[in-house]
Amino acid sequence: MVEIKMKTRVTGATATMAARGHASLVSETGGALDVTTGVSDPGFNPLDMLYASLAACLVLSVKGAVVQLHLLDGFESVTAHVTGEKAHEGPSRVAAIRADIRIAGPYTEEQRAEIVTLAKKLCTVSNTLSVLPEISVSATAA
Prior knowledge:
Elements lengths: L12 E4 L7 E4 L4 E3 L11 H23 L8 E10 L7 E11 L4 H14 L1 H7 L12
Antiparallel strand pairs: 1-2, 2-3, 4-5
Helix pairs in contact: 1-2
């Protein structure tokens, strides 16, 4: 059995939006990103960021899985393409998320399956989406 080690860092984000203009985000570590709202505008909207978070977490977790499984020698690269489908009924939400992970290197299909299984277990984002967290929202004066 592979032991899962957890590392932590400061996480979080603040979104800001004025009466005119687009929303923008700043992470706890200083990263910045503008949020798009138009359907044809290039950039990230909130759903893109959800999918991007999962894709990024999966590629990082694949790398971690390859290391833990002692398969790093053959590792060339990994790509995760994540898409989703919005629910047609009920509250506005995503009903299904799909991730296609492509691992380059001289691995067998069994090894790729083992890597992906471990990566999914290592990925905080996939674990969070699989077992929904409690979400609390409050409002205060600006």
